[in-house]
């Protein structure tokens, strides 16, 4: 077993769901050791949380700039090798940029930046740095999503006709109707979240899943948003028509006010020979549909699955795998890339996925504000 990679974490303190997801994922395959962090802007809270998770306190830093300065003074054999950025959206770009400029590998939450312009700057910095950059579109790590990708690549569906992705949540419904409550949520603050809430937070996951599984690129979009209140500057619901080619079209539906919904991401890919359906809330079932044959169900851990799917499966067939395992597969792929090992290009989303995501987000906003018009993606 190779020596563990020295990991730093920015953000993801005690109240953060994404924080525990990343920390557990980093540990699952024994590839990383957490050695440095800035969990919160408040140093006392920072230290208290480090004690809570039993992390050595000598490399828990006051702030991000101090972390960079102090780590760079350590011998290369001791300083962090890779850093995970789990902060609110507006901090992703400056933090990732400085990490790349100092030669660190980066694992970053999405959206990668708050603008396409920033994403392109980061892309250039990444090219110069020559390090690994992994973007945590978590759902690409599910074994059955990877199985779908590999089977589509091998021609299981034939020519693709239609794609349909939906991502419904209901959590914003509990705050949107109270002006004071919605003003306190950072995801509804354009200064912290960027130009989009719904499409920037969850719609971009659906967009990424369609490109990841089909191998096709979205070429143009037409969007229609719902803000619910005139005083709310952020979209909280939207529908996006997409064109992936002259005869490959589809729709992305996303909502944060779909009352009663929890984390309802689902995709369907329809081809000339067959179709796939998959749901995040039931991630171990991949359905293959046909006009002429009974529906087939693929499940993780069986020998009939692809190498990529089986590599992302940690338990025998019949033992459910979930969101921690999915994120862990991305961390495992990033570790292979950092170590210079051979890896499948489907093991983790990259800088290009981050740029594509920001292109999608900005195009949806432009389309809606332009009067629901078609907008081309770069």
From TrEMBL:
PANTHER family: CONSERVED EXPRESSED OXIDOREDUCTASE (EUROFUNG), OXIDOREDUCTASE. It comes from Maribacter arenosus. Residues 145-276 form the GFO/IDH/MocA-like oxidoreductase domain. InterPro entries: Gfo/Idh/MocA-like_OxRdtase_N (IPR000683), Gfo/Idh/MocA_oxidoreduct (IPR051317), GFO_IDH_MocA-like_dom (IPR055170), NAD(P)-bd_dom_sf (IPR036291). Residues 8-135 form the Gfo/Idh/MocA-like oxidoreductase N-terminal domain. Gene3D superfamilies: Dihydrodipicolinate Reductase, domain 2, NAD(P)-binding Rossmann-like Domain. This is Gfo/Idh/MocA family oxidoreductase.
């Amino acid at each position: 077993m190779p020596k563990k990679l020295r990991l730093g974490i920015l953000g993801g303190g005690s109240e953060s769901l994404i924080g525990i997801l990343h920390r557990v994922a980093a540990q699952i395959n024994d590839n990383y050791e957490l050695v440095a962090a800035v969990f919160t802007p408040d140093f006392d809270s920072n230290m208290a949380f480090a004690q809570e998770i039993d992390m050595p306190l000598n490399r828990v830093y006051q702030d991000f700039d101090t972390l960079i300065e102090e780590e760079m003074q350590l011998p290369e054999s001791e300083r962090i090798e890779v850093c995970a950025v789990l902060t609110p959206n507006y901090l992703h770009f400056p933090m990732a940029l400085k990490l790349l400029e100092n030669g660190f590998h980066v694992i970053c939450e999405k959206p990668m930046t708050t603008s396409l312009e920033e994403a392109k700057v980061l892309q250039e910095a990444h090219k110069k740095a020559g390090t690994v950059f992994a973007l945590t579109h978590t759902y690409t790590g599910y074994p059955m999503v990877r199985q779908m990708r590999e089977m589509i690549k091998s021609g299981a569906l034939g020519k693709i006709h239609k794609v349909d992705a939906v991502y419904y949540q209901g959590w914003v419904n509990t705050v949107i109707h109270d002006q004071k409550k919605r003003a306190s949520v950072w995801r509804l603050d354009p200064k912290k979240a960027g130009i989009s809430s719904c499409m920037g937070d969850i719609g971009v996951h659906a967009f990424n899943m369609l490109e990841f599984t089909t191998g096709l690129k979205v070429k143009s979009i037409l969007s229609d948003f719902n803000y619910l209140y005139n005083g709310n500057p952020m979209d909280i619901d939207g529908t996006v028509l997409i064109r992936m080619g002259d005869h490959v079209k589809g729709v992305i539906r996303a909502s944060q006010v779909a009352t009663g919904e929890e984390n309802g991401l689902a995709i369907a890919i329809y081809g000339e020979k067959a179709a796939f359906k998959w749901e995040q809330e039931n991630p171990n079932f991949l359905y293959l549909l046909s006009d002429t044959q009974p529906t087939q169900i693929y499940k993780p851990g069986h020998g009939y699955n692809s190498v990529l799917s089986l590599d992302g499966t940690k338990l025998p067939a019949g033992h459910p795998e979930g969101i921690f395992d999915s994120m862990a597969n991305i961390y495992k792929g990033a570790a292979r890339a950092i170590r210079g090992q051979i890896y499948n290009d489907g093991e983790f989303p990259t800088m290009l996925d981050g740029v594509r995501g920001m292109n999608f987000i900005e195009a949806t906003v432009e389309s809606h504000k332009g009067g629901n018009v078609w907008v081309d993606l770069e």
